[in-house]
């Protein structure tokens, strides 16, 4: 049992090695980003236990990976020394080093569809929370609000099967002589994977002062998707998406 989510918006950012002045983004949503979305929707405070999310299995279909954009920031420049950003020790920076440079990366115009599988009581609670979130949800960072709809369907017997042959694709079909395939990101190691990676994105706590993560293995593999699911135009895609949502009502 599970549910299906659509993640789309002007900007998304799914960092996995974000530290200090470098805020990266992967080409697909991270587990920590998705669990953070679920926890926000359910109104879970920072520092609350997250172990009940462990049974959830996530499969991501990359409809559109989007275009990587860099946001170049400067912080603290032009201020008197006593007003500049303090160091980790709480001191003020030396003259000439007051300005902090940061690079923050985003994906523009990306669309992902996510199958969430797990115990019925947990997937049901997450689906209900996403329909009426306690706190606003966002696509990796607070500056990245999502488009609607987010929740496509709840109480789906086999959501991964829906990714393969039911959910409309937010991309134009490839050339007739090209394979009608999309990249799927699955947890664990697959024999047909084009790439396998170890990611440190399994959250143990979202406490502001004590964030901890475990590693997991993910595989990225292309899988065929029926030709009729690919959108020939933007209007046709949204019409097909609405039809898909209403089929379950």
From TrEMBL:
<dbReference type="InterPro" id="IPR021124">
    <property type="entry name" value="CRISPR-assoc_prot_Cas5"/>
</dbReference>
<keyword id="KW-0051">Antiviral defense</keyword>
<protein>
    <recommendedName>
        <fullName>Type I-E CRISPR-associated protein Cas5/CasD</fullName>
    </recommendedName>
</protein>
<dbReference type="InterPro" id="IPR013422">
    <property type="entry name" value="CRISPR-assoc_prot_Cas5_N"/>
</dbReference>
<dbReference type="InterPro" id="IPR010147">
    <property type="entry name" value="CRISPR-assoc_prot_CasD"/>
</dbReference>
<dbReference type="Pfam" id="PF09704">
    <property type="entry name" value="Cas_Cas5d"/>
</dbReference>
